[in-house]
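user: can you give me the structure for this one chain? C-alpha cells are fine.
assistant: on it. calling the predictor now.
[tool input]
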Amino acid sequence: MENKYLVIGGTGKTGRKVVSNLKEQGLNVQIGSRSATPPFQWEDPSNWSRVLEDIDRMYIVFYPDLAVPGAYEAIDRLTEVAKTAGVKKAVLLSGKGEKEAERCEQLIANSRLDYTLVRASWFNQNFSESFFVDPVKSGYVALPMPDAKIPFVDTGDIADVVTAALTDDKHNGQTYEVTGPRKLTFGEVVQEISDATGRTISYQPITLEEYTEGMKKAGLPADYIWLFEYLFKEVLGNPKNQVVSSDVERVLGRKAKDFSEFAAETAETGVWEQKVTHV
C-alpha cells in the first residue's frame, strides 16, 4: 500500500522543499500548516487527530524552535495523537547543540514509532529568507559573537536528508547531524555575501546586550527576543555546534553545499539588492 506523508511546517524553509521532493517522487503528500485543510496549528491541538488521519509517515518542524517553553509538551502530545492515529514513522527536525531540543528528541526516540532525528546547524537561508536578510540589504550587519565559527547548512541539504529518512527505512533509529562543509564566522559570511553581490556590506561586532536592546527598540515580541538570546548564548557558544559533520555526504552520497555556492546562487535572485528609498 502507498504511504501517505504529512509535512508539518510544509510551507517553511525546509518543509516546502521536502514537500517538493516527495511530490517529484510521485508520493502522496499532505501539508501541515495554518492555511491547509484541515489546518494544523501548534497552539491548537483540537484537530490534530483530523490532520493525522490516514497518515503513515510525518516530518515534524516545531515553530519557532524546540527550545521554547511549551515545545516539549507539544511534541509529547503530538506523539501520542500520532500513535493513536496509526502513524508509523516520524522524522524530527532538531537543533544541533540544543539541550532542550534533545529532550524533545527523546520523546520521539522512546515513542515506539520508527524515527529519524535530524539535528541541523544554523541555516544559510537565515541570511536570505529570514532574520538577517534586511541587515544584508542595508549593507550593515551588526551581530554578537564575532568569534563563533558556525558550519552553516543549506536548507536544500536538510530537505534531501529528511526526504531520504522519510522514504527509506534504512535510516530508522538514526540521528544525523547536518552541517555545511566548513565553519565561518559572521564576519566571513558577510564577506562571502559581499563578494557574491559585488556590494560593500559591513559587519559590525556588538555585544549580546546591545543586540537585545536593539530588538527591544524595534518592538519585537518578548518570546522572540528570549529565543535569540538563548540561541546566541547557549547554542552558538556550544562547542558541539561548531563541529563539521559528514552526515550529509553519508546519507546522500554527495558533499554538502558550501556557503559560497549558496551565496552565488542567491545573489543571482536579486534578494540582496540594496533597498532604494525614493523621496
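assistant: here you go. The CA atoms of residues 249 and 255 lie 5 Å apart. The longest helix spans residues 71-85.
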